């Protein structure tokens, strides 16, 4: 075997012999061992709880280098996209693979404006759901029913239908989310206004005349746009992996994305932004000092929410951008935000403590988002819905990419069985 071939293969020595497995190198030099022949050749599976070492697909959408704190969508660093692009441009990039030309962006945006309405009976259905239910559960249910209201766009094998469903999802999710919010505060829904851009329309449908105008309104609009950009995709996180798994059964895109919303709702995933705010509230209300709180974290009595990440072993690059945004919005000499000050102190104390740095526990995307959303007037239980609005292009892009993947198969992991051996059924001889 030549050195070159050795580079591109690994050998697995096991009791029954030696298996040579191919090694693929990704565009950023990352290497992955293909295990397709493992079970057939050796009778063995691999055990990888939580898929920490498993690449379940090849993808061209997002690149993360967790050690270096790098995140790129379709090759573009998120820092550049954050400065140079709007959320709609980024959504287009993530879904279709390239930044849009001005004409393409206008066409995309026009289609979203035209499709932002939901059918009247869908509105009635949303209004009939429990108004004090968690909005993530209501959003997931509403997204699921889109398949029933729009059954002309549920066939994964028809590209035109998938495209139509893409537009409908992007266009209608803000309308659905805003209606669910207004129901929760006992206010009438506000219909989408086709003269407004995507984010403006969402904040108007949410807050109506109560949204700030002038300089503050503009700053809030830009902040929501930036937060959506920073959440647009994150490769095979739990909710995106869920969208792919559900979609791999040829389930329609609405069903697959409703499953993604459900996966995102958990406090170990998107629900963490809500959990961070609740933690900060509790520290403030209980009067515990930050030092004592961190001691309790070390004793495993409480969890430090918004710190640490499965992939980033250093700063989450999104958290730096979000901290900058929070500073812009909340660090006002005239009116300092109490929870932001507390978050800053908590971050500084944790980063000065080797317990946290040795364990690579740095602030993640969720740490500062909540304080910004709260300052804008969003209630805590809407934070994860905002994450879902941002993540939607990523879910759509992964669903679509999978449909064209030549290696596409229904997701069907194996298990390592550790249960009882065959047993005699009671009463049998
Ligand atoms: C995300 O953006 O989905 C979260 O950071 C979680 C993850 O990537 O695992």
From TrEMBL:
What PROSITE patterns is this protein classified in? CITRATE_SYNTHASE
Domain of life (superkingdom): Bacteria
This chain's source organism reads Nocardiopsis coralli
Keywords from UniProt, A to Z, are: Acyltransferase, Transferase, Tricarboxylic acid cycle
Q: Into which family does the record put it?
A: Belongs to the citrate synthase family.
- Pathway(s) of this molecule: Carbohydrate metabolism; tricarboxylic acid cycle; isocitrate from oxaloacetate: step 1/2
What's the protein called, per UniProt? Answer: Citrate synthase
The catalysed reaction is:
oxaloacetate + acetyl-CoA + H2O = citrate + CoA + H(+)
Q: Name one GO molecular function term.
A: citrate synthase activity
């Amino acid at each position: 075997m030549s050195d070159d071939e050795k580079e591109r293969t690994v050998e697995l020595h096991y009791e029954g012999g030696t298996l040579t497995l191919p090694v693929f190198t990704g565009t950023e030099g990352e290497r992955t061992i293909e295990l397709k022949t493992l079970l057939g050749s050796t009778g063995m599976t691999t055990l990888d709880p939580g898929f920490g070492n498993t690449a379940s697909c090849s993808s061209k959408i997002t690149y993360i280098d967790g050690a270096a704190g790098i995140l790129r969508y379709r090759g573009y660093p998120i820092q550049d996209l954050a400065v140079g692009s709007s959320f709609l441009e980024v959504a287009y990039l993530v879904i279709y693979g390239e930044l849009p030309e001005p004409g393409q962006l206008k066409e995309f945006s026009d289609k979203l404006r035209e499709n932002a309405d939901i059918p009247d009976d869908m509105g009635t259905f949303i209004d009939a759901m429990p108004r004090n239910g968690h909005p993530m559960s209501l959003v997931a249910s509403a997204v699921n029913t889109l398949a029933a209201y729009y059954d002309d766009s549920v066939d994964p094998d028809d590209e035109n239908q998938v495209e139509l469903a893409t537009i409908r999802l992007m266009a209608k999710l803000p309308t659905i989310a805003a209606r669910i919010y207004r129901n929760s505060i006992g206010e009438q829904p506000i219909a989408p206004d086709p003269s407004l851009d995507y984010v403006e329309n969402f904040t108007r449908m949410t807050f109506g005349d109560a949204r700030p105008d002038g300089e503050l309104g503009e700053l809030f609009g830009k902040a929501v746009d930036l937060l959506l950009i920073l959440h647009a995709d994150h490769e095979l996180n739990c909710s995106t992996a869920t969208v792919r798994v559900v979609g791999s059964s040829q389930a329609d895109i609405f069903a697959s994305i409703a499953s993604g919303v459900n996966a995102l709702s958990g406090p170990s995933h998107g629900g963490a932004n809500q959990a961070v705010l609740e933690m900060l509230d509790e520290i403030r209300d209980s009067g515990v000092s930050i030092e004592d709180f961190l001691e309790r974290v070390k004793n495993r009595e409480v969890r430090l929410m918004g710190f640490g990440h499965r992939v980033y072993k250093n700063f989450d690059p999104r958290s730096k951008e979000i901290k900058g945004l929070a500073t812009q919005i909340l660090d006002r000499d005239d009116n300092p935000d109490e929870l932001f000050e507390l978050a800053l102190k908590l971050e500084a104390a944790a980063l000065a403590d080797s317990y946290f740095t040795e364990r690579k526990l740095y602030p993640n995307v969720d740490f500062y988002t909540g304080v910004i959303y709260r300052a804008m007037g969003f209630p805590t239980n809407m934070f994860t819905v905002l994450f879902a609005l941002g993540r939607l292009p990523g879910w759509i892009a992964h669903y679509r990419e999978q449909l064209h993947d030549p290696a596409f198969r229904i997701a069907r992991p194996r298990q390592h069985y550790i249960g009882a051996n065959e047993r005699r059924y009671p009463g049998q001889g």
